[in-house]
Amino acid sequence: MPAPEHAGDFPERRGAPDVAALIPIVRRIVAARVPDQATADDLVQETLARVLAAVTRIEDGMVEPYAIVTARNVVASMWRERDRHRRHQHRVVDLRPSQAPDENLLAQEDRTAMAEALTRLSERERRTLLAHEVSGQDTRTLAAELGSTAGAVAAQLNRTRARLRVEYLLAADRVEPPTERCRPVLLAISSGDRRRQREVDAARHLLECELCARLCEPLMSRGRGREDEIRVAVRSDADVVAARQAARELASRLDFSATELTEIATAVSEMVRNIVRFAGSGDVLVELLDHPRRGIRVTARDSGPGIPDVEQALHNGYSTNQGLGLGLPGARRLMDEFAVVSERDRGTTVTMIKWRGDG
């Protein structure tokens, strides 16, 4: 079976950004800060590689600003590394073994930052997130407790995770945003909501705010290089195969049975096929879960016309040309948890989970 393609492997299917066109401006930014030509060339390539890796999460108008910010960050990181090397150069002749970093201290700092980030969530956000991620309650159970719907709970969890990522980075850096625009921009980037990025004019803000420019890269590139998730950009029928392979490849690591692997792959195929048919484009995130139960979560998102009546769309035999609908009932039967959130003219997000039978 061919290896599954990651989000960074799909820049040509976006149709908007021509990364080659970014080379002149990136080269000017780097050359103005790095006199050595060979080093400058390496940094230009590193910048372009990072842009390609994040391009599927960047709204079209933000590609050039993101490339500019990334180039600045790459150069700054290089100079910091060189300065650190210079300050420790005397240790080259020291034959004594260097003291290992205090991993316990670093771990404690990380836990402190996460604890601080959690306190910045509302009581409802914190309680729901911990119940789902730590206690393992599914969205249907949480919805019954909260007097809501599974879809609404899934949407709330997605927003809470995005906010937690932002607050964690701020707490870890021990900084507060300098303006009121910072948090809305960072939250739009963290959630990958391109429509919201346009509404808050994130592209301009990243060029004006040094803090947000520094924090945007880890938010945009979250999951890059991780072995427990794969993101697939959906643009054409070929991406149906890529998404199906990604889901099957990850699920196979949890030793799902052959039947369960087929069920997962089929459900993913239905969702991706509907994105292509009704919305034109979107993305699918496939993640392994291991807290406390083991399973796989698939989040399929688009910015299409939406579903007028979600409850009706979940009934067997229902079909519509106005949004998702054809594969929803079948996919829900194949998975253990299934939630749909849809807004008219804003798009649809489908979240599906398949748990290992040994729980």
Radius of gyration: 22 Å
Tally the beta strands: 5
The secondary-structure class comes to alpha+beta
Can you give the helix content as a percent range?
40-55%
Side by side, the strands of the main sheet go 1-2-3-5-4
Fraction in beta strands: 5-15%
The poorly predicted ranges are 1-17, 319-326
* Largest sheet composition: 5 strands, antiparallel
Run of helices and strands: HHHHHHHHHHHEHHEEHHEE
Q: Gap between N and C termini, in Å?
A: 28 Å
Task: Compile the SSE list and pairings.
Blueprint (H helix, E strand, L loop, with lengths): L22 H9 L5 H18 L8 H25 L15 H17 L3 H11 L5 H8 L3 H24 L8 H10 L2 H6 L2 H7 L1 H11 L8 E6 L3 H15 L5 H22 L2 E9 L3 E9 L7 H4 L14 H7 L2 E7 L3 E9 L4
Antiparallel strand pairs: 1-2, 2-3, 3-5, 4-5
Helix pairs in contact: 1-2, 1-3, 2-3, 3-10, 4-7, 5-7, 6-7, 7-8, 8-11, 10-11, 12-13, 13-15
